[in-house]
Amino acid sequence: MKKNILLALIVGAFMFSGALTVAAKKALPASSLSGGQGLDLNALAELFKESSNVEKFELELNKPETGLNNLDLDENDEVDYIRVEEQVEDDTHLIVLQTQLAENEVQDVATIAVEKEDEENYQMQVQGDPDIYGENFYIVPAYRGIGAWPIVGWIYRPVYRPYRSVFGFRVYPRWWRPWRPVTINVYRTRTVRFVGRNNFVASKTVRVKTVHKVSYNRQTSTLVRKNKVVVNKGNTTVVKGSVKKTNNNGTTVKKGVRKTTQTKNGSKTKTKVKVKKKNN
Asked: How far apart are CA 246 and CA 58, in angstroms?
């Protein structure tokens, strides 16, 4: 009898572990391979859903205890602070997430758009910036009824002032201390509690139709490599943009594209980097 109970416990533990592994794999939808290791958009949407207002959303997003922010866009081995800026036009809110990597270097990371259709119905979408996540990639709610979310009720109060972060380059909260980004496997374990709830799904189409009404100029930084994500027959290829560098001897070195391919089973392959040299 005891042996049967022990066997059942072992099988149960194995199944639970397998369920966590499957949930962890959901942390990175195929089209967010390049950006997902720094900021998983599915987990981001869950955090937005749980937050009581936009200011607290920014706070929780950047807290190391939350484990959601793993972005290092300028590749200096320090996680970047993500600031939040909100733009409003009529009943459409556009919440922009961005990093300020230098005094005049700002890079958008993602946007969260919320639209009020009527007194009961709302639309919402999270869009990753094309430089990081590729073109036309959205995370949207899997169901309607998002008007019950605390943060949606907050931003649609009768008297509401859009949130503008006071933080930026060299101006951070007192508690903020940059930390080294973790590996993708460690990051997945940190975000698994967010992405296993099935409240959001990936989409290639716009959900918030009025987002174009909001006046906002997209910000891009020269310090960030531009990525292109290509999905072909179930495999995902991330093409790193070319980077030009001029040496002291006047020789321009142009690094060729680096490709990383991830198959359905999660395995990765990398091609060698081609280097071209051209004397000036």
From this structure: 38
